Amino acid sequence: MTAPRGGDELAAALAAVLGARTVTGLQRITAGASRETWAFDADDRALVLRRDPPGLPQPEGMRREAECFRAAAAVGIPVPALVAAGDGSDAVGTPYLVLARLEGETLPTRLLREDRFAAARAGLARELGRVLARIHAIDPGKVPSLDRVDDRLARLRAEHDAFGEPRPAVEAGLRWLADHPPVATAPAVVHGDFRHGNLLVGEDGLRGVLDWELAHVGDPREDLGWMCARVWRFGAAPEVGGFGSREDLFAGYDEVAGAAPDPAAVHWWEVFACVHWAVICRMQAQRHLSGAEPSVELAVLGRRAVEAEHDALLLLGLVEPGTTLPDEPCPSDSVAPHPVRPPTDRPTVDELLAAVEGFLVDELEPADDRSRYLARVARTSLAVVRRELALGPGLQRDHAAALARTGCHDDAELAAGLRSGTLRLDDEAVAAAVRSGTLGRLAVANPRYPITRPRR
């Protein structure tokens, strides 16, 4: 069955599967790059639809997520009530969940900055620790379709290898992870994506744990390391989501589980989280690059992989907080055009980019929140192009020189040497080459990123 694309057709499909007289207010919201999320009202109920993009059905994954919502609700974990679920063989046309719509906020910029959430922020890290302990206590038998992942590192390496692209910083992270395995612990239900965006927060604290699509059975400390990853701090200093401390997170966990997590094991999983997020960014970009799901949002995510690579190097002590490239003391989105250009017509490439940026910022008036969000993403993509045109040739020359000092001709040789162990990170020339490539790509993708100084 063909999935309805939206508007009246989707509203009619939802009315059919819910047995509702009317479906009104249907609006796609910004949340979620992997699945579509729609808010709507069915008769007198405020609901949310989560569905796979048309053409990319994953019925097994949606079934697992439905099981997780039911199991979590049964043990008192705050989740939205599951109203309906389907494999796409009905009128909705693609696998989906329909959930009760809870009031609250998921946007990290609002949660971290607005005064109305100050009280919630104060106790949130401890509260999340308690909730994670309850998640990890769920009987895996209640979610029988969950994958059991016994060697998470091997799976991550295979996901990275599938792209056949050398990324020395990823190899550096994988090498460290392989050399420093944590002491094993009993497997448990793992949420898999416990962080900002998947947590619904009100002024009184946590109201709902969302988006269980990456849940599996594995090491429960994975969730703790993921929550501590720098990417989820959104520029704020506190180590847990930009709002709390590891000590509070672990204390909350201890309250319910009866034992605090091992900080060294959580650190391992935090390094893992950095490498994992880098790979996820590349996987998301592939959905766009393959033509299966054209999306400026997914395309830009591909360039964000280097942020996670930087964070991995930071945790491994290979870069310092606030590190930027030499001769780049004040990174900015505004860079001068490259001084050498082949003959061209006017407007030049830089002038065309400026014109489109001006349209997106000053002239475009998107009709809804998601369109406004995507306009900002599009502007970000143009800024990346502009910086690559201006900085790319010089960065490539500098990186080639760093590679030469290791005896490598390119990143493929550097990555292969790190994988095999013939090149080691305690060799300063090797570490410098890994830094050079990572910081160079970061200067193009997001030069403001390294300025944030996390509290140690």
UniProtKB/TrEMBL annotation:
Keyword Methyltransferase (UniProt): no
Name of the molecule in the record: Phosphotransferase family protein
InterPro entries: ACAD10_11_N (IPR041726), AGP_Transferase (IPR051678), Aminoglycoside_PTrfase (IPR002575), DUF6285 (IPR046252), Kinase-like_dom_sf (IPR011009)
Enzyme Commission (EC) number: 2.7.-.-
Domain of life of the organism encoding this protein: Bacteria
Pfam families noted in UniProt: APH (PF01636), DUF6285 (PF19802)
Lineage of the species this protein comes from: Bacteria, Bacillati, Actinomycetota, Actinomycetes, Pseudonocardiales
Tagged with keyword Repeat: no
MF terms (GO), sorted A to Z: transferase activity
Keywords: Transferase
Start and end residues of each Aminoglycoside phosphotransferase domain: 26-257
Gene3D superfamilies, sorted: 3.90.1200.10, Phosphorylase Kinase, domain 1
Residue span(s) of domain DUF6285: 368-449
